[in-house]
Amino acid sequence: MGTVFSFDVRGGEPGAVQAALEEAVAGLHRVNEVFSTYRDDSQVSRLARGELTVEQCAPEVAEVLALGAEAERVSDGWFSMRYEGPLDPTGIVKGWAAERAARLLMATPGVSGVSMNGGGDVQLLGAPEPHRPWRVGVADPLRPGGLAAVVSAAGADELAVATSGTAERGAHIVDPRTGRSAVTDLVAVTVVAPKLTWADCWATAAFAMGSNQGLRWLESLPDVEALLITAGDEVRCTGGLASRLG
Among candidates 211, 214, 185, which has minimal Cα distance to 201? Predict the structure, then answer.
């Protein structure tokens, strides 16, 4: 998937945790083999060319396509799996794969907490220690090395933090209505939600919308908070974000 995944697992018997880690890593490689649009032999590439049907693909393909269709519906098309024409579910696959790996690890007997980082997007489950929550720093896109905020998972059994923007990868987010790079007043959108699958999608969609429409839309979503930073260094956030900072 062109990025780095890292795991922080707390508790559990070492042998069982090691086995679960190996299974999670193998699962991520499998996702890359099935879903990569850069591999001509991947199931998604063959599906896009009409060489396979969804029913002939691995069950995960139908699952991801259904999630992507739901993301398109909720975002009124601002999140899309066909923004350049051919089928391309990569906008949802990374978050889904990282969340799935985190849940696999959390199901290991004795594990009390998991932090799964996929290219800077994080799924948090449980806690690192009793009475101490997971905390995630949100990079400041206008001040390299600095933090725009620190998100706390206090009081939440599951929490995800996902950021879309131009600081790390340049203008890579596409406006699905034009098929070209999204031109907005934003440099970064960070979404905080229970599940990384959705947090990642919503951050991408809101970035394409721009700060005004994006903030209004994010405010309408249940269990979602967000931090938006504009190119003019204006910080905008949803009404409940303050309860997640610390």
Answer: 214
Instruction: Tell me, rounded to whole angstroms, the distance of Cα 142 from its chain centroid.
Output: 21
Cα(51)–Cα(28) distance, integer angstroms: 24
Give the whole-angstrom CA distance, residue 188 versus residue 237: 12
Which pTM does this prediction carry? Answer: 0.92
Q: Are 138 and 235 in contact (CB under 8 A)?
A: no
Using alpha carbons, select from 13, 195, 15 the residue that is nearest to residue 103. 195
Dig out the tokens for 15 from the structure. 């042998």
**Six-digit token string for 44:** 């998604």
CA separation for the pair 185, 131 (Å, rounded): 40
Q: Distance between the two ends of the chain, CA-based, in angstroms? A: 31
**Listing from the earlier edge strand, what are the strands of the sheet with 111-118?**
5-11, 111-118, 121-126, 158-165, 186-193, 225-230, 235-237
The residues near 165 (Cβ < 8 Å, ≥ 6 apart) are 141, 173, 186, 187, 188, 189, 207, 229
Tens digit of each residue's pLDDT (9 = 90 or more) over 4-43: 999 999 999 999 999 999 999 999 999 999 999 999 999 9
Q: Give per-residue pLDDT as tens, 233-244.
A: 999 999 999 999
Burial 84-116 (b: 16+ CB within 10 A, else e): eeeebbbbbbbbbbbbbbbbbbbebeebebbbb
* E strand spans, the chain: 5-11, 111-118, 121-126, 135-139, 147-152, 158-165, 174-175, 180-181, 186-193, 225-230, 235-237
**CB 3 within 8 Å of CB 111:** no
**Could you give the dihedral angle defined by the CA atoms of residues 234, 238, 243 and 246, in that order, rounded to the nearest 10 degrees?**
-30
Kindly state the helix (H) or strand (E) to which residue 70 belongs, with its residue range.
helix 59-74
